[in-house]
Amino acid sequence: MSNKNYETIASLLVGAAIGVGLGILFAPDKGSKTRDKIKEHFDDLKDDMKSKWEDLENETKQKFSMNKEDLKETIDELLSRSSHKAEETITFLEEKLAELKKQNAKLQK
């Protein structure tokens, strides 16, 4: 989680605490109504935090899935290059084998 996200969460919690404190101090309503308002405020805060967490989770999943695709492409590219190198190596070995056969044929005479 980035520092910006931590700062956002911390700001929300501080704001909620201040709001609750001021609400209690200046509440013109009965205690039961004040408690209901506080509960509603915390429910709103909880929903907001849940939404931010889901956004962060989705963003993280997206970044990892993009990296997964990049990794897959890199592996495919490496395998393709390896295949070409293997062909070059086989061709080189076939040429050397042909030379050795010629040399062996001369020695067999």
UniProtKB/TrEMBL annotation:
It comes from the Bacteria. Signal peptide: none annotated. The keyword Membrane applies. Keywords: Coiled coil, Membrane, Transmembrane, Transmembrane helix. The chain crosses the membrane at residues 6-27. This is YtxH domain-containing protein. Residues 61-103 form a coiled coil. It holds the Pfam family YtxH. The keyword Membrane applies.
